[in-house]
Design a protein that fits this description.
Chitin_synth, membrane, chitin synthase activity, transferase, alpha+beta, disordered N terminus
């Protein structure tokens, strides 16, 4: 083979040495030598070139005495002469070329050779051969040369010159490779890019040098049965933590936030050298699985992110294997690279950051099949193969704290009865808490905080957490599996029923599975013959983005509220399963207390729209009496009350109309305006409560009653202020007890103003859309081919198609006579029937209508009874209003006190266990 040597300096001459390639030629034959007239232009520094850049006009001297002048000269331009501009240089700088001894024979036997060989790697970009006159010419002299038939040249990549940067080129995969199927499955071991590998600490071995690709052609439930396997199982590694990240079409920045947080957690696990489980080399006990819901839905930058980690390679995936469509593409690689949210690549060889290798899996689903299907790939396909101890669930956009995953795992390690655990989810506040300037974010921040201070600790003490959020939670894999006694029942079986509803399932089940993680929690606690519990881990936290616009918030809460409502009913109706579990009697007693608490919560949730309206009605109407009106002007406040009352009712009607037929994104202004006016009404309601309290205390002092008992006996003070102070006072005290009081300062006012909108906008939209059980994804479309198809072709510049149609005279007549004869037949009128999909949609909408009518009727009846101004069997208006207001406000205070007791008990248990130290 001929190779071109680059001179050490500009004064050196270029030498081309012809080396023998085959042993069948006589070694005594003289070898050709080349003496260029001067250094070719193609050899200049920094310019890509062929291994041999010039062909020469040559003379051939044979043993017969033929001189060089007797032979024809041929000249072929060098590669550099093909480069017309800088863009051509970029496009062609990786062209492969070589002039071997066999190709020289081909050249001599065919002087009219063109440049096709040089551009065979890029057949689409063959240029016209330019005329070059200034290029140097090499003289070739061959003696005793008998050329065999020409053969195809061997293509060898020309090396990059020093300082030359390879640029991204159009990918073309021309190499064909015969691959043997593994158990009838397509499994490829693909070399990782050398440019990636050279920068890593570990470079030798199958795990580091190759990325494994599997084209999965079966359902997730058949993954193991179809002899598919995964690298951790092949290498017989025990998996302690199996982490899944589910994604749809999120951008690469959200993906990087989540992945970088996971990398920090695995680094922390490897740094715990005093642990029996973790420490150096413990990264082999962790597997990270990314499940993308739809190949065409995934952000293209995410592919680049994974490719930079060595996990993904473009051009490897196949759509079909032996006639079977591929359901998912599984890429496996142990990466040594982490990429932070600023897209800075941290490589193991050139960094002392302490990051360790991470076993990665990337499951790219061919079709979009929703999040529940992604979890089925994780639990039913990969879980049985890897057999992990603990499974951690994360959503893209959720960033776990640097030690949060360890804290979750620790809950399972300390208590063998823990089947599931979750941590605290915090809204992302941004730099200097700038996101809290948005009242929607601030209100949600307060809501999340109080849920993590009062609700989650209470449920953790009882042992049944109503929901372990799929964005950040963990499960013991063994607890999810079916038991031998009940092979047809189990948490995962119930969990995945919502993916493919059966004909027997109705709208109740469809709405219930909008909150499928709540079903999984109930099934774990109520599992027959087991005593599994759920735990809240305060030390584990994660940050996530919350909706910052009105349409996003409404759409999110539609699924949350409907799913929560129907799952709560499901847990109440199926509470009897608890008796078949193996829980202790004292814990079953706690479950009964929680059942009573849930029933009361559902009751107040059902009548929430009436409760908040009546609270406004009673407080605002109280200022219309002369003795209660500021400055003694009751007439002004009567007008204000009437105007605001009708305005309140008008806003509710608007929200109902919008919710029945308008998408939040299409009516953003009206929804936002409704929330703004409800916030104004809440502010007026607060003013009324404060003024009535002031009057109550003033009247008591004016009567000479200075004792505290006299003030408490005042009905207005007792029913309004004392109950509200109990509720919000417990909020403040609980926040201080958990050393997290700042949300009371930064977010309480926004939450207070948003309270009417939570009921009158979010609840109304959710109930008016119970027929909508979608997650916002479209189903696959199927083309009907009952009319046949035609295929076109081009001939002589004209387009033609081949069609089947009657052309014979007897065929045409037969069709005509048959049509005439059919006119005499009497046909029965066909009854129009609805297809299955239309029937289901009508059924869902009918259910929605009945539910909304029942909801409106019951709330309207309550409003009519309490707000009736006359005297009836229920007493006077004053008696009814005071009694009702006292019942509502003190019930809220009682529920808050119950939650507070559970919150304090949670702190006490943490102190006993040593988890918390003062």
């Amino acid at each position: 083979m001929y190779r071109q040597r680059r001179p050490r300096n500009d004064h050196d001459q270029l030498s081309l040495i012809a080396e023998s390639e085959s042993s069948d030629h006589n070694s005594s034959r003289p070898r050709p030598t080349y003496q260029p007239s001067h250094r070719p232009a193609a050899a200049r520094r920094g310019q890509p070139q062929f291994a041999t850049s010039n062909y020469a006009s040559s003379t051939l001297s044979s043993s017969t005495g033929q001189t060089s002048n007797d032979l024809p000269e041929f000249e072929i331009p060098s590669y550099s002469s093909f480069i017309q501009d800088k863009s051509d240089l970029t496009r062609h700088q990786s062209i492969y070329s070589i002039i071997s001894r066999k190709s020289i024979r081909s050249i001599i036997s065919n002087p009219d050779i063109d440049t096709e060989n040089a551009y065979s790697y890029y057949p689409h970009s063959q240029p016209e051969r330019p005329k070059v006159e200034e290029e140097p010419v090499y003289s070739v002299q061959l003696q005793d040369f008998n050329p065999p038939p020409p053969e195809s040249p061997v293509l060898v990549p020309a090396p990059l010159l020093p300082g030359e940067i390879p640029e991204r080129q159009e990918r073309r995969y021309k190499t064909k490779k015969v691959v043997q199927l593994t158990d009838d499955n397509l499994v490829l071991e693909c070399p990782v890019p050398p440019h990636y590998l050279v920068k890593q600490t570990r470079q030798k071995g199958q795990e580091w040098e190759f990325m494994r690709y599997s084209a999965v052609t079966c359902d997730p439930d058949q993954f193991k049965a179809e002899n598919f396997t995964l690298r951790p199982a092949m290498w017989k590694r025990e998996t302690e933590l199996f982490i899944v990240v589910t994604m749809y079409n999120e951008n690469v920045n959200l993906f990087a936030e989540t992945m970088h947080g996971i990398m920090k957690n695995i680094r922390h696990l490897a740094s715990r050298n005093n642990s029996k489980t973790w420490g150096e080399g413990s990264w082999e006990k962790v597997v990270v699985c990314i499940v993308a819901d739809g190949r065409k839905k995934c952000d293209t930058q995410v592919y680049n992110y994974l490719a930079a980690m060595g996990v993904y390679q473009e051009g490897v995936a196949k759509r079909e294997v032996n006639g079977k469509p591929v359901e998912a593409h599984v890429y496996e690689y142990t990466t040594q690279v982490t990429i932070d949210p600023h897209m800075k690549i941290v490589e193991s060889k050139n960094s002392d950051s302490g990051y360790v290798p991470v076993q990665m899996m990337f499951c790219l689903k061919e079709k979009n099949a929703k999040k529940l299907n992604s979890h089925r790939w994780f639990f039913n396909a990969f879980g049985p193969v890897i057999d992990p101890r603990v499974c951690v669930l994360l959503d893209v956009g959720t960033r776990p704290g640097p030690t949060s995953i360890y804290q979750l795992w620790k809950a399972f390690d300390l208590n063998s009865n823990v089947a599931g655990a979750c941590g605290e989810i915090k809204p992302v506040k941004g730099a200097l808490a700038k996101n809290l300037l948005n009242p929607l974010v601030a209100a949600q921040n307060f809501e999340y905080k109080m849920n993590n201070i009062l609700d989650k600790p209470l449920e953790s003490v009882i042992g049944y957490i109503s929901v372990l959020p799929g964005a950040f939670s963990a499960y013991r894999y063994k607890a999810l599996l079916t038991s031998p006694e009940t092979p047809t029942e189990g948490p995962l079986i119930s969990y995945f029923k919502g993916e493919k509803p059966t004909p027997d399932s109705g709208i109740f089940d469809a709405n219930m599975y909008l909150a499928e993680d709540r079903i999984l929690c109930f099934e774990l606690v109520a599992k027959r013959n087991y005593a599994w519990t759920l735990r809240y881990v305060k030390a584990a936290w994660a940050e996530t983005d919350v909706p910052d616009t009105v349409p996003e918030l409404i759409s999110q809460r539609r699924r949350w509220l409907n799913g929560t409502f129907f799952v709560a009913l499901f847990s109440i109706f199926h509470f009897g399963k608890i008796y078949k579990s193996d829980h202790a009697y004292w814990r079953k007693l706690l479950f009964h207390l929680q059942l009573l608490y849930n029933i009361l919560s559902i009751f107040f949730s059902w009548f929430a729209i009436a409760n908040i309206y009546l609270t406004f009605y009673i407080l605002a109407n109280s200022l219309t009496f002369t003795e209660n009106s500021p400055y003694g002007r009751s007439d002004i406040f009567k007008v204000v009350f009437i105007v605001l009352k009708y305005f309140y009712e008008f806003l509710v009607i608007i929200v109902f109309v919008l919710s029945m037929g308008n998408r939040p994104t299409g009516s953003k202004f009206l929804y936002t305006a409704a929330m703004f006016f409800f916030a104004f009404l809440m502010a007026y309601m607060t003013f009324c409560a404060i003024w009535l309290t002031y009057l109550g205390i003033s009247h008591a002092l004016a009567a000479g009653e200075t004792s505290l008992d006299a003030v408490i006996k005042d009905p207005t003070f007792r029913n309004v202020i004392l109950s509200l102070a109990s509720t919000y006072g417990l909020y403040l005290f609980g926040s201080v007890l958990y050393l997290e009081p700042w949300h009371m300062v930064t977010s309480f006012v926004q939450y207070l103003c948003m309270m009417p909108s939570y009921v009158n906008v979010l609840n109304v939209y959710a109930f008016c859309n119970t027929h909508d059980v979608s997650w916002g994804t479209k189903g696959d479309t199927i083309d009907n081919m009952d009319l046949g198809a035609v295929k076109g072709s081009t001939k002589g510049g004209d387009s033609e198609v081949t069609v089947n149609m009657p052309t014979q005279e007897h065929d045409i007549n037969a069709t005509y006579l048959q049509a005439v004869a059919s006119l005499r037949d009497k046909t029965k009128e066909e009854v129009q029937k609805r297809d299955a999909k239309t029937k289901q949609e009508d059924y869902y909408k009918a259910f929605r209508t009945r539910l909304v009518l029942l909801w409106c009727a019951s709330n309207g009846l309550l409003v009519s009874i309490v707000s009736y101004s006359g005297t009836n069997q229920t007493g006077s208006y004053d008696t009814r209003s005071k009694t009702y207001l006292a019942f509502v406000l003190w019930s809220v205070a009682f529920l808050s006190a119950f939650r507070f007791v559970g919150s304090v008990a949670y702190i006490f248990l943490r102190l006993i266990s040593g988890e918390l130290r003062w």
